[in-house]
Structure prediction request, 343 residues.
Amino acid sequence: MDFLILFLFYLVFMLVSVVMVCICSKTNSLKGLVQGGAQICSCIIPECIQRAVRKLLHYLFHTRNHAFIILHLVLQGTVYTEYTWEIFGYCQELEFSLYYLLLPYLLLIICLIFFTLTCLTNPGTITKENELLFLQVYEFDEVMFPKNARCSTCDLRKPARSKHCSVCNWCVHRFDHHCVWVNTCIGAWNTRYFLIYLLTLTASAAVMAIISTMFLVRLVTMSDLYQETYIDDLGHSQAVDTAFLIQYLFLTFPRIVFLLGFVMVLSFLLGGYLCFALYLAATNQTTNEWYKGDWAWCQLCPVVVRPPSAEPQIYQNIHSHGLWSNLQEIFLPVVPYYERKKK
Prediction:
């Protein structure tokens, strides 16, 4: 029963990880793949089930709710429970350094602190009171952010680099994206917390993967298992190879092997997204601007239909002023500094 539960737990984790990457990246190819899959499923699944699934997806991804926050905490708690019960005790018996074994817990504390700060910090909501202040922060490029644009929902002038979030129903200064895992937008005031949260979450998964791998490797080397032989199905004596070792460890420590497989995959997925987020921070771009910039480049493509008299407008990033200035803008946002000075 434990084996089955852990197997289902692993599949759910993998599915959630893929969904998270799809939500965060928002690439055209992924969206096309999802739409194609939806068309195929519509021919097989009954209409009543399709309506229920659409309502559920709308609730999860198009309304503010705490479902993914609860899921995030449950999954993280489950992983650390498995690490504590399975790996921590075995590694102590093998005399692993206690500092290495406690490192995931330290990362967990830091991760939860910045996760909470990301959830609770105002991302940079634009209101009547701060509208004029936000309008002076960034320069309008007249391509992606025209100067006299207004938000039809909030009835406010749109500062450069802002966007109205349809989920939260407000305009956000330096809007990056809406993250369902923290149930809020990522904007000018909480991007710094989000980056540190993402960094510590990736590091904790990577450290767990390293410790789990070291445990299994030391177990094999101490038992001299790689020097043994076994009898195959034909009755022949065979030397122990890598495939046999993996099968043996899987049958002996199934939960540890499943945990190792999950945290390894999660480390690569989170690491890839972290690199993308750091690239955007280093070049002073947001996910929204990067995504819209792809469409701006498509205006040069000959297959794109546009009026003959219209000249293509190419988006250029005018907000990047060097690596140090770009990072300083994220970790020392302008508006909070002015507000503290005014108070």
